[in-house]
Amino acid sequence: PVLLRLAEQLLAHYRRGVRPVRDWRTTTTVALDVMVYAILSVDEKNQVVTTYIWYRQHWTDEFLRWDPAHFDNVTQISLPAESVWVPDILINEFVDVGRSPEIPYVYVQHHGEVRNLKPIQVMTACSLDIYSFPFDVQNCSLTFTSWLHNIHDINLSLWRPPELVKADKSVFMNQGEWELLHVLSRIQEFSVKGSDNYAEIKFYIVIRRRPLFYAVSLLLPSIFLMLLDIVGFYLPPNSGERVSFKITLLLGYSVFLIIVTDTLPATAIGTPLIGVYFVVCMALLVLSLMETTLIVRLVHQQDLQPHVPTWVRRWLLERAAALLCVRHRSELRPGRARSGSAGKGGALASVSSAQHTVPPPPAFAPAARPSPHSSEEASERETPAEAGGSAWARALLREVAAVRELLQRREELHAAAHEWLQVGYVLDVLLFRAYLVAMAAYSATLGALWAAWRCA
């Protein structure tokens, strides 16, 4: 009965449509407070953040006062929110009506202080910077202001000191993707095109993404594929398996990019740095495949290929080999004269051995000693035999010369192929180390950028 009598007395002549002051020149001060409960979702594509907050406000209503001694020492009462005056304070960043629970009551103290406590699901627009994804830190603001009343009618203040608001994480659910760093607050005035001044309070909710999931599912597979590409350089340059190995890696990385496309945040104004990282890794794989194709082409110089040009031998087999410490320069510089003389010597040795091992023809077989009476018949018989033997020797020498020429040609082709193999080997080492330097510089740059953004 006491609460009913008190409510009837307070609301009997109350007019909720008028600001509750006895002197219209009196400013109604509304104190606000925000406590972040959870970060529900962050939509990078639409630039929308859904936050669940505990919102508190209180103000003084000069027409809702009573003496507790007359009402059994009752110092506060709950009244329907639609029966009392409530300030028209909105959030400027609202983009949609949130599914907030309806709280139908407000608390009223005996000295006229009205407290309105309610949870709100806030869907607000926020300028999200995803360039440093997944190590990004977002700063989204909630701007509370009176939509109609200027600063002379309604002024705003903080319920708690800014230091307490900043460090308060007591109700935040810390199990999701986002981590709450702090909540900053600022009170300021603004005017629109020279109109009246309005008061506003900005709460800056600073959140940071937990990168462990994305590092495991995005960065580590890419790093492993790039390490496999580096290991592929240790296959022999004259092996055809290196090309197929590189092509398999390139196809695998393409499939990996197709899978992670839906995971990466997408906006119309920018691309995350990790997307650039993936594109550059794909470009490095393509360059690695092109380098492998070039080396395989060099080391498979076969028929009718000239010797390595002099300038290529000087720059690659001498200077580049010495600079890269591949091996001693004398081992990478087979001389043509030495190989040619060796080929000629081998051919001559073959010819001499062939001449010593050829059996004598039947015409020169040892015969019986002629008698003095048959010298004329013997001379007549030896003349056609000697002629046949010389013809057989000339044919044999022609065959030996042909074999010698074939051996010389084979030695020249072998020497040219060996020189091109050495050029391909040195060039492969040179390009491989340049590839390592490029990847190390690129990885160091990305790591420094992500570390700087994370610390900032």
UniProtKB/TrEMBL annotation:
Residues 337-354 have a biased composition (Low complexity). This is 5-hydroxytryptamine receptor 3A. The keyword NADP does not apply. Belongs to the ligand-gated ion channel (TC 1.A.9) family. 5-hydroxytryptamine receptor (TC 1.A.9.2) subfamily. HTR3A sub-subfamily. It is a multi-pass membrane protein. It catalyses: Mg(2+)(in) = Mg(2+)(out); K(+)(in) = K(+)(out); Na(+)(in) = Na(+)(out); Ca(2+)(in) = Ca(2+)(out). Residues 374-384 have a biased composition (Basic and acidic residues). The keyword Disulfide bond applies. Gene3D superfamilies: Neurotransmitter-gated ion-channel ligand-binding domain, Neurotransmitter-gated ion-channel transmembrane domain. GO terms for cellular component: postsynaptic membrane. It comes from Eudromia elegans. Keywords: Cell membrane, Disulfide bond, Glycoprotein, Ion channel, Ion transport, Ligand-gated ion channel, Membrane, Postsynaptic cell membrane, Receptor, Signal, Synapse, Transmembrane, Transmembrane helix, Transport. Forms serotonin (5-hydroxytryptamine/5-HT3)-activated cation-selective channel complexes, which when activated cause fast, depolarizing responses in neurons. It holds the Pfam family Neur_chan_memb. The chain crosses the membrane at residues 212-235, 247-268, 274-296, 430-453. It is found in: Postsynaptic cell membrane. Residues 218-444 form the Neurotransmitter-gated ion-channel transmembrane domain.
